[in-house]
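Input sequence (364 aa), recorded before submission:
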Amino acid sequence: MLIRNANLLNPGTERGIYDILIREGKIARIAPHIEAEEDVELDVQEMYVTPGLVDAHTHLGLKADSQGEFYADHNEKKSILSPEMRAIDAINPQNVNFEEARKAGITTCASGPGSLNVIGGQYACIKTLGHIVDDMVLDPYFAMKCALGENPKKGYETTRMGIAATLRNFLFQAKAYAEDPNHKFDMKLEPMVPVIRGEKALKIHCHEAIDIVTAVRICDEFHLKFTLDHVTCGAEVLDFLQKRPEIPLLLGPTLGHRGKVELHGKSFENVVKLAEGRDVCLITDAPVIPLEYLPVCAGLAIAKGMPYERALEAVTINPARVMGVEDRVGNLAPGKDADLVIWKDKPFVVIQDPVAVFIEGKRV
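Predicted structure, token format:
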């Protein structure tokens, strides 16, 4: 397939009008003009084209739509430490939210356990198109979910001291297990080995400033790779975070009301402050914010002062890098998946449905 005259908005590509050649579900070439004879040729007449959008923190397919808490599979309530739980064993692609997401231009997302447990389980990176999760997976385990703050505190009637002690104790156990070549197999400790070795990140739910600082302190103690997810009150410790620009910040869900005490810092103004001078991801935490509203979140960040190009990166290449799948998705380049979105008007700053969405070269 050949797409002609695309007004391309693409991280890593100079703004302009381009042709995009797609073969076997991959981007074959991008150039101002391509001479090729293809069975399908689509002239988009200078409409906008972006990469498929990416969200690095959702619970898509784990919290059932319109069915209530009983049918939710995102929190395993039997143990405060549940690293053996795998998102791919519970993600339901038949959930209507998948269709809603891809129709809005979101083609890839993270989906994984919730924040009830201090260690919640294994987060997956998936495409939003498919009927069998195994066929949709880019990485079945790219990060280990961890949670600090009010959710585990309330769920297990503990304190912030207790949460930190529980996490530290478990990390000590996991470290000893990983360093012992003669260890006996342990279902809980085995998935922690790549975390201890820095091969997988701890994906840490933290809203309050105190929890943000605790997350950094503990991860530094054990020399872990990690991301800070939500960071709702991060502006209260802005100087602290600015000294650590290498830490990925996944910001959101920012659209919506402040439904609990630890969300008092929720605002797009604070998102813009936290994004200054560093790469960030914008997240919906779907279904907290429906995943199809990710473009709206980008638009609201732009309205509060985030540069357009940075907002585009925050919902494309940055989350792809956080999940380690930037070789497949996140921007349009030869060899990458042909996941792209066609927009009539400039995306994010105009609320609209896409004209067309392609995932691996297939129009959806």
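Checked by second reader. The mean pLDDT is 96.
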